[in-house]
C-alpha cells in the first residue's frame, strides 16, 4: 500500500495541483503585463484563472485527503494485524513452553522408569536365585525327614529325633520359599508395570516431540512475519507522516487561494489583489521539497513562480495605495 499511496497521490492530486499553480502563474503574468486601471486589465480572465486556481487546489486537497485516509486505514489494518500476530506468537510461545515441559517430564519419567526397570530386573534375578535355593533346601530337608522316618522303624531313638528336626527345617525352608516366591511375583509385577509405562511414554514422546518441532517452526515463522510486518508498519508510518505533511501544505495553499478568490470577486484594480497573490505564491513555494512534490511538472511551475515572485513584490511595493476594492 505504501508505494501505491505515492502513486495514487501523484496520479490523483498532483495534476490538479499543477493546474492550480499554472492558473496562479497566469494571474501573475496578467498582473505583470496589465496596467493598474480596470480598462487595462482583463478582469474576466483574471477572475477565471483565480477560479481555476482555487477550484483545482480544492480538488487536489480532496484527492490528497482521500489517499491519506486510505493510507490511514492501511496503517490501522497493519497495526491490527501486527497485534493479532504478536498475540498469536505469544500464545504459540506459551504452548511451546508447555509442550517442551511435557516432553521434559516424559523424558524424565522414561529415564526414571528405565532405571527402576533395571533395578527390578536385577532384583528379579536375585529373587529367582533365592527361590531356587529355597526350593533346593526344601527338597533337602524333606529328604532328611524321609530318611529319619525310615530310620525310626529300625532305630527309633535316632530316626524319630532326626525326622522331627528335618521337618522343622523343612517347614522353615518352605516359609523361605514362599517369601522368595512372593518377592519374585512382586518384582515380576513391577517389571510389567515399568515396561507398560515405558511403552506408554515411548508412544507419547515421539508425537509430542514432533508437535514441539512443528510448533517451534510455526513460532519462528510467526516471529519472522511479525518482524516483517513491523518493518512495513514503520515504512507506512513514515509515508503516512510525509503524505500528511503534503496534505497540510496543500490545505494551507488552498486557504491562500480561497482568500485570493474572495478578494477578486469585485475586482477594479490589481493593487488590492497583489498582497494575496504574493502570499499565495509564497505559500506554494513552501510545499515540502520532498516526494511527491519533487515531480518534474510541479517543480517546473514552482520554479517559474519563484522567478516571478520578486517582480510581484516589486509591483506590490510600487502600487498606488489608493486602489481599493469597492
What key phrases describe this protein's structure?
single chain, 326 residues, Helix Hairpins, 6 helices, 88% helix, disordered C terminus
What does this structure look like?
This protein has 326 residues and is an all-alpha fold. 88% of the residues lie in helices and 0% in strands. It has six helices and no strands. Helix 3 (43-154) packs antiparallel against helix 4 (156-263). 21% of the residues are buried.
List the helices and strands and how they pair.
Layout (H helix, E strand, L loop, with lengths): L1 H11 L1 H20 L9 H112 L1 H108 L10 H12 L10 H23 L8
Brief sketch in words of this structure:
With 326 residues, this protein is an all-alpha fold.
What portion of the residues fall into strands of 2 or more residues? under 5%
| Rg | 51 Å
Oligomer designation: single chain
Number of domain units = 1
CATH class: Mainly Alpha
